[in-house]
Design a protein that fits this description.
The protein has two domains: about 140 residues, Aspartate Aminotransferase, domain 1; about 240 residues, Type I PLP-dependent aspartate aminotransferase-like (Major domain) (Aspartate Aminotransferase, domain 2). Helix 4 runs parallel beside helix 5, helix 10 packs across helix 14 and helix 11 crosses helix 14. Helix 8 links the parallel strand 6 and strand 7. The chain is built from 14 helices and twelve strands. The two termini are about 30 Å apart. The chain is α/β, with parallel strands linked by helices.
Length: about 400
């Protein structure tokens, strides 16, 4: 590789933050940006064209989840879906109880609504995790009381990629008559997700994590689940989410889900090979390194590692100068100086938690990308450690 190639090479390894839109998704959306612009609530032909597109997308989303189409509520993204699930179930079931169970490693879109509900008279149990980021299903069961109305445990962690024991927790929640929500934003499109097998009552997804557009997502709500909307106005989404639907975005989400459904098996297998190769090469060429998260129960595309004696943000900045995009934690926490709450919950001290880097792979990732990372990263680590006088 020439010096010119090295300077101009751009490698994107931050797919957990967001993904480029698939070309077929873009093409599906284009007609609804111009000629087919109707409001789906309008009764005329323009409106009914838009309504048909929304309902087609609803079927596409439901199909990949193994759900009924009327169980899909379109939202503005994963954060709104999580908020609707947590707050919506809490307020709708306050007459039954005021206790919520979640974990210490959830996305802020679950943690912050839970903390807010504590100011409104709700009790929240934040369960600990082990060194891999796994929550113990037995701990979930022991935490349930006669006042528990909701359990919210993410399908897979957005930072370290650990896949939680959702099926076991779903069985426990079902046996106790407690609603169960999972934030599956990082999982959908990467691993099989079937709401009946998981025994979940609510499940959050976000389009831009699976080659769809930003600003749109969905919440699966099992029929019979008692939930209230926190957006009041019109009667859209069967009165579960007021506001004119984002038709263009919803069409994009539907197409992205359809594509994911057709590719998931082969693509996951391909990505796992790249992931495992990256992990192997990192440990082969760099000393004093650790893999964060579970070594086997992890997302196909996630490699989260810590390099001793160097801060992750500094490593990420040097990689960026070399044209390689990675992250140190959730994109929602970018710029924060506090150490990762996920790694802290896993037992890391602040200095260790600040040393982490997340590589996340996607559809456009190639073996050449891994080669380039390994060409530049070892020298970066060596240089930074030398300057740190370890």
């Amino acid at each position: 590789m020439t010096k010119e190639d090295r300077v101009t090479r751009r490698v994107y390894l931050d797919y957990a933050a967001t993904t480029p839109m698939h070309g077929d998704v873009v093409q599906a959306m284009i007609p609804y940006m111009s000629g087919m612009f109707g409001n789906p609530s309008s009764g005329h032909t323009f409106g009914q064209e838009a309504r048909a597109a929304v309902e087609d997308a609803r079927v596409q989303v439901a199909s990949l989840l193994g759900a009924a189409s009327d169980e899909i509520v379109f939202t503005s993204g994963g954060t709104e879906s999580d908020n609707l699930a947590v707050k919506g179930v809490a307020y709708a079931n306050r007459d039954r109880g005021n206790h919520i169970i979640t974990t210490s490693v959830e996305h802020l879109a679950v943690l912050e609504p839970s903390r807010f509900l504590q100011t409104q008279g709700f009790d929240v149990t934040y369960l600990p995790v082990d060194k891999y980021g796994l929550v113990d299903p037995d701990a979930v069961e022991k935490a349930i009381t006669d006042r528990t109305i909701l359990i919210s445990v993410m399908y897979a962690n957005n930072e370290v990629g650990t896949i939680e024991p959702i099926i076991e927790i779903g069985r426990i929640a079902r046996s106790k008559g407690v609603y169960f929500h999972t934030d599956a934003v990082q999982a959908v499109g990467h691993v099989p997700v079937n709401v009946d097998e998981l025994k979940v009552d609510l499940l959050s997804i976000s389009a831009h994590k699976l080659s769809g557009p930003k600003g749109v997502g969905a919440l699966y709500v099992r029929n019979g689940t008692k939930i209230t909307s926190f957006l009041h106005g019109g009667e859209q989404e069967h009165m579960r989410r007021a506001s004119t639907e984002n038709v263009t975005g919803i069409v994009g989400l539907g197409k992205a889900m359809e594509i994911a459904g057709g590719e998931i098996a082969a693509e996951s297998k391909r990505i796992v090979k790249l992931r495992d190769r990256l992990i192997k090469d990192l440990f082969k060429h760099i000393d004093d390194i650790r893999l964060n998260g579970h070594p086997k129960l992890r997302l196909p595309n996630n490699v989260n590692v810590s390099f001793d004696y160097v801060e992750g943000q500094t490593v990420a900045s040097h990689l960026d100068m070399a044209g390689i995009a990675v992250s140190t934690a959730s994109a929602c926490q970018a710029g924060h100086k506090d150490p990762s709450h996920v790694l802290m919950a896993m037992g890391y001290i602040p200095e260790e938690a600040r040393n982490s880097i997340r590589f996340s792979l996607g559809r456009e990732s190639t073996p050449d990308d891994i080669d380039y990372v390994m060409e530049v990263l070892p020298s970066i680590i060596k240089k930074l450690r030398k300057s740190s006088h370890r």
